[in-house]
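Hi R.,

Here's the chain you asked about this morning:
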Amino acid sequence: MAAAKPMTKSQFAAHLAEKFSMSKKAANDVLDEIAAVAVAQTKKVGAFTLPGIGKLVKAARKARKGRNPMTGAAIKIPAKTVVKFRVAKACKDSIVPPKK
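And here is the predicted structure, written out as C-alpha cells:
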C-alpha cells in the first residue's frame, strides 16, 4: 500500500477556497496570516494555541556537555531557545486512538 502524500499549501488553500466559497488568493492570504500571527505571538508571548490542533511553545534549553561522536571528545553545547509544537490531546486521540 503506497502512502498518500501530505497536502501542499496550494492544495490546502484550494480546499479552503472551495469549502468557504472564496477565491484561492483569499484562502492563501488567510493561511499566510495565520502563520504570521502564530510566529509573532510565539516570539512575543512565548506560546500560540491553534484551537483543536495544538500549541507552539518557545522553550529554553540549558547548556550541557555532549560528546563528539567522531572523536569521542567532550564538548560544551551552549544554551539556546527552541520552538516546540505540542499536539492537543483531542487531535492526537482522533488520529491515533488510545489503547484500552
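One quick note: Residues 24-45 form the longest helix (22 residues).

Cheers,
M.
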